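Please fill in the sequence for the structure shown.

STRUCTURE ENCODING:
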């Protein structure tokens, strides 16, 4: 079994590796700390059997990494491992395709339990989670946004994340080693797919996927 751990905190990655190996001594574990490295590893393969994903990653906007990977690699089950323990965050993660959700305060035994259950095709959630999870109209709006984001190509998604990070066209072109004209063409397609008119509206749209509690 091949598991990929994606978390930008070295100390927690080490602790998570130890917890996984306790339940699965023979497992192959790979790790990455950055979103771009995560995407590159998936593109070059081989695909992992399971991903343990932190939501608070530099270069990602809340649930964007989860949404992107679920769209591009639907066969790979993803368990979110996060310091966020709010029911609403867990609710949104499951809505966006997470097969499990492990709060970072969980007992180490829950990690092995969650992995086994998810690999068997089930969803694993914290034992103390309320059973009456309900989804409101905001969840439907977010699901619609996620669907539009899933229509982006991998390169368009990278451009969108860089735009949301405040980079200018010239900077994005340099980072991706393409021309500014190519970036402008990508942005035109991104705006069309997201149903927005400009960069500001695109950034506002993607910010809806952030982890902060939404206000009524």
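FILLED IN BY: designer on duty
SEQUENCE:
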């Amino acid at each position: 079994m091949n598991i990929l751990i994606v978390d930008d905190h070295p100390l927690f990655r080490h602790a998570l590796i130890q917890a996984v190996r306790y339940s699965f001594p023979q497992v192959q574990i790979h790790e990455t700390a950055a979103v771009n490295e995560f995407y590159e590893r998936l593109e070059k393969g081989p695909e992992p059997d399971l991903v343990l994903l932190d939501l608070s990653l530099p270069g990602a906007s809340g649930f964007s990494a989860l949404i992107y990977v679920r769209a591009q690699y639907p066969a790979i089950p993803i368990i979110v491992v996060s310091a966020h323990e709010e029911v609403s965050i867990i609710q949104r993660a499951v809505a966006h395709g997470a097969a499990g959700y492990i709060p970072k305060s969980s007992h180490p035994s829950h990690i092995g339990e969650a992995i086994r259950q998810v690999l068997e095709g089930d969803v694993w959630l914290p034992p103390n989670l309320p059973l009456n999870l309900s989804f409101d109209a905001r969840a439907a709006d977010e699901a619609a946004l996620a669907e539009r984001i899933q229509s982006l190509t991998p390169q368009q998604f990278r451009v969108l994340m860089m735009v949301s990070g405040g980079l200018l066209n010239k900077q994005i072109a340099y980072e991706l080693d393409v021309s500014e004209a190519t970036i402008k063409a990508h942005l035109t397609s991104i705006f069309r797919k997201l149903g927005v008119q400009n960069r500001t509206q695109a950034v506002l749209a993607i910010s809806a996927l952030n982890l902060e509690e939404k206000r009524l």
